[in-house]
Amino acid sequence: GGINQAYLGTGLRIKKLSLGVNAGYMFGNKDFSTLLTFLNDSIQYAQSNTRNETHFGGLFINGGFQFEQKFKNKNKKESILRLGAYGSLKQTLTARRDATVETVVFDAAGNKFRVDSVFEKNTKIPAMKWDANFPATGSFVIEDTVASYHLYLVIRHTDAYMYNNIWVNVGLQSPGDSLYFQKLDLSLGSDAAGWEGTGMNDIWEVRKPLALNKRFRKQGEYRFSIFQVMRDNPLLHIMSVGMRVEKAP
Question: What digits encode the pLDDT tens for the residues 198-210?
Answer without folding.
Answer: 988 889 999 999 9
